[in-house]
Amino acid sequence: MNQLEELDKLVSGVDSELESVNDLNELQQKKANYLGKKSILASISASMKDLSIEAKKEVGMKSSKIRQLLEEKFEAKKKAIEDAIVNKKLENETIDVTLPGYKLPVGGIHPLNQTIMDLEDLFVGMGYKVAEGPEIETDEYCFEKLNLPKGHPARDMQDTFYINPELLLRSQTSPVQVRTMLAEKGEPIKIICPGKVYRRDADDATHSHQFMQCEGLVLGKDITLGDLKGALLEMFRKMLGEDRNIRLRPSFFPFTEPSVEVDVSCGLCGGKGCNTCKHTGWIEVLGAGMVNDNVLRMCGYDPKEIQGFAFGIGVERITMMKYKIDDIRNFYTNDLRFLNQFKEEK
Ligand code: DAH
Q1: pLDDT per residue over 272-313, tens digit each?
Q2: d(Cα 31, Cα 44) in Å, to the nearest integer?
Q3: Which of 101, 80, 146, 188 is closest to 294 using CA atoms?
Q4: Which residues are CB-neighbours of 246 under 8 A, at least 6 positions away?
Q5: In 3-state terms, what secondary structure has residue 295?
Q6: Is 257 helix (H, G, I), strand (E, B) or coil?
Q7: Given Cys at both, which of 50, 163, 303, 333 links 293, Cβ 3.0 to 4.6 Å?
């Protein structure tokens, strides 16, 4: 067989041989057989030196054509194998977008924070601003400027954590009143200040060494106790239900004169009397009063020009009423069985 025939034979067999190959290593092997240094094609090239010039030309041209043809065939096969590999991979890795996803646990808003947010919304709607103050407070702002000089017996009402004789963990949010009055320098004020307070109380179902209050202060011309009652009634009805009523009882706080204790009608019995309200129909919820003249003067206000009221809401107390919770410790023990009940399902 001369070289030209050999070349033809080479091409005629390649297609059927490539058909069964579906692996890149095998293809590489076959390519070496056809086109490598020890291939038939290489031996034909090597044998050309003995041919006539004419025949050399003819065999040379044909073998380079065939080399090119074979290279194209191997390249095409290589591409086909690679494509098949990718397609198989894609097929195995397809994502079924209709399968349900993983449910990641999401937190909820703590019921106390929810109450504070509700109070803020409500009072901001009535034209109040929200003020803040530090939890580490001075004795001067927490007590002295609120008409509670050192040694005053009413200090015993709030057993306080002292850091040193002048610094303490605030036992009430009332010092934010002082800070706001000093900053506003005699101008009218309408604020609430929610925040944490601390007292040296033993924890039980109704006491916690750390709890939350929301203070309110309104100063202006001709503000009366009637304005206080109106604001508080509005607040309780919005927070607890339109059927609620409130009543004011005389009380004592050094920073207000007169001072009142505010009761709200019991939501469980509708005011008829039950165990929760100790059969009175009323539940005590906050302290309030008209800001004491001494406080106004100490904080730069002239009581003849400007008067007003203040109140201090117990955030836990009102949250417990709203959600019928019977132990204040639930708010602080981070038990998910409790907290999850307040989570909105998303
Ligand atoms: N600070 C008082 C307390 O913690 C509550 C209070 C009573 C606040 C009367 C007031 C107020 O602003 O006027 O017991």
Answers
A1: 998 888 899 999 999 999 999 999 999 999 999 999 999 999
A2: 16
A3: 146
A4: 229, 232, 233, 236, 262, 263, 264, 265
A5: helix
A6: strand
A7: 303
Q: CA dist 344 to 109, 115, 175, 238, 303, Å?
A: 8, 15, 35, 20, 47
* Residue pLDDT, tens place only, 45-82: 888 888 888 888 888 898 899 999 999 999 999 999 99
What gap in Å lies between CA 183 and CA 201, rounded to an integer? Answer: 32
Give the E-state strand segments of 117-239 in sequence order. 129-130, 136-138, 162-164, 167-169, 189-198, 210-220
Sole residue written with tokens 């009581």: 303
Q: Which two tokens stand for residue 96?
A: 């079924």
The encoded tokens of residue 270 equal 């509708």
For residue 227, what is the DSSP state?
A: H
The helix or strand, by DSSP H or E, that contains position 110, with its residue range, turns out to be: none
Q: How far is CA 237 from CA 10, 218, 265, 319, in A?
A: 98, 20, 10, 14
Secondary-structure breakdown of the chain: helix, strand, coil percentages, each rounded to the nearest 5: 45, 20, 35
AA letter at 177: Q
Substitution candidate for ligand 1 out of 311, 313, 316 with most atoms within 8 A of CB: 311
Question: How far is ligand 1, taken at its centre, from the CA of residue 279, in Å?
Answer: 26
Could you tell me if the CB of 310 is within 6 A of ligand 1? yes
Residues composing the chain = 346
Instruction: Output the CA 310–ligand 1 centroid distance in Å.
Output: 7
Dist. CA 326–CA 283, nearest whole Å: 14
Structure tokens at 67: 């080399």
For ligand 1, mutation pick of 255, 259, 261 (most atoms within 8 Å of CB): 255
**pTM score:** 0.73
